[in-house]
């Protein structure tokens, strides 16, 4: 059985998409890690399995469920950039009828709008402030705001230029506060309604963008300014997205691009654990 794949990205956060409507693929952590490996696989920050909600027994108002996996094979609740790419694929392939529809995810249902030109808006739902903690980079402490966007984040607004931070290795963080791990964002305010951000993602490493991370960054910046409503652009190494917050509820808008489609060799797939 030939296994179809597509490659896509949202602000250079890149994904392998696996159309699997009936949930037949045995998508083991080893296979995910092999697909995402940039030398022995296709290379990506994560895998998006395109599967019907009913096929996974998921309770969702959406026909399609974004089964997201990190590059190391681990599951995550939500992926904002992935959801834009996933939505773009569904409209391009005719699997979604209109430009606006609901998608299932482990963090619940999300409404998406695919706009002419390929930009996609995701109604992300609540971005909740859950406390304060510290990220440690090269033995320096950066205090941060913990934000739950369905998945966990710690956002540190820093005085240094984020471009100068050494994110080659995972920053240290409080494992008691974040027992499931955490995505770590480092942010420079660029003036009113504009942020610059770098991110070290749980289960991946440094990526060129993280949609949930940009939502967390804007929620944290607004929280530090004493509000839960406002709009901001976020510049990440892979481009720019816009986040709007209204009373703690976020929408994320940014580009989504499909790059290629092809077939995996059965022998290769079968040889992965
Ligand atoms: N890149 C994603 C986030 C993917 C999940 C994250 N690494 C986690 O483990 O929570 C995004 O665009 O939101």
Model description:
The protein is of the alpha+beta class and 273 residues long. Helices cover 15% and strands 45% of the residues. It folds into two domains: 3-125 and 256-265, Diaminopimelate Epimerase, Chain A, domain 1; 126-252, Diaminopimelate Epimerase, Chain A, domain 1 (Roll). It contains four helices and 18 strands. It has an 18-stranded mixed sheet that branches. A hairpin with a 2-residue loop joins strand 1 (3-10) and strand 2 (13-19). The protein binds ligand LBFN2T5F. Residues 13, 70, 76, 79-82, 151, 183, 201-204, 207, 210-212 line the site of the ligand N[C@@H](CCC[C@H](N)C(=O)O)C(=O)O. The site of the ligand N[C@@H](CCC[C@H](N)C(=O)O)C(=O)O has 17 residues, from helix 2 and helix 3.
CATH architecture level-2 label of the largest domain: Roll
End-to-end C-alpha gap: 18 Å
Sketch the major β-sheet.
Answer: 18 strands, mixed
Radius of gyration based on Cα positions: 18 Å
Mean pLDDT: 97
CATH superfamily of the largest domain: Diaminopimelate Epimerase, Chain A, domain 1
Order of helices and strands: EEHEEHEEEEEEEEEEHEEEEH
Class by helix and strand content? alpha+beta
Strand content: 35-45%
Q: Could you please say which CATH topology of the largest domain applies here? A: Diaminopimelate Epimerase, Chain A, domain 1
Uncertain stretches: none
Architecture blueprint of SSEs:
Layout: E1 3-10, E2 13-19, H1 29-36, E3 46-52, E4 64-70, H2 80-92, E5 100-104, E6 110-114, E7 119-126, E8 128-137, E9 140-148, E10 152-157, E11 172-173, E12 183-189, E13 194-201, E14 205-207, H3 211-224, E15 230-236, E16 239-246, E17 249-255, E18 257-264, H4 266-271
Parallel strand pairs: 2-3, 4-5, 10-12, 13-15
Antiparallel strand pairs: 1-2, 1-18, 3-4, 5-6, 6-7, 7-17, 8-9, 8-11, 9-10, 12-13, 13-14, 15-16, 16-17
Bound molecules: ligand LBFN2T5F.
């Amino acid at each position: 059985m030939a296994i179809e794949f597509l490659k896509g990205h949202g602000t250079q956060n890149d994904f392998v998409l696996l159309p699997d409507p009936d949930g037949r693929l045995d998508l083991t952590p080893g296979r995910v890690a092999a697909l995402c490996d940039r030398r022995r696989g296709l290379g990506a920050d994560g895998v998006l399995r395109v599967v019907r909600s009913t096929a996974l027994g998921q309770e969702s108002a959406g026909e399609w469920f974004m089964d997201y996996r990190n590059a190391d094979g681990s599951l995550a609740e939500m992926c904002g950039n992935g959801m834009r790419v996933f939505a773009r694929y569904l409209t391009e392939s005719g699997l979604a009828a209109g430009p606006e529809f609901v998608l299932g995810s482990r963090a619940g249902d999300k409404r998406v709008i695919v706009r002419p030109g390929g930009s996609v808006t995701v109604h992300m739902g609540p971005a909740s402030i859950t406390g304060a903690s510290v990220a440690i980079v090269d033995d320096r402490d950066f205090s941060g705001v913990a934000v739950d966007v369905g998945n966990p984040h710690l956002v540190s607004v820093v005085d240094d230029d984020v471009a100068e931070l050494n994110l080659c290795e995972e920053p240290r963080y409080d494992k008691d506060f974040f027992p499931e791990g955490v995505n770590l964002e480092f942010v420079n305010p660029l003036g009113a309604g504009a942020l610059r951000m770098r991110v070290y993602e749980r289960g991946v490493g440094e990526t060129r963008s993280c949609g949930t991370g940009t939502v967390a960054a804007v929620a944290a910046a607004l929280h530090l300014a004493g509000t839960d409503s406002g709009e901001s652009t976020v510049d990440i190494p892979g481009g720019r997205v816009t986040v709007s917050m209204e009373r703690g509820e976020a929408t994320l808008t940014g580009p989504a691009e499909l790059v290629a489609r092809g077939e995996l060799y059965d022998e290769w797939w079968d040889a992965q654990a």
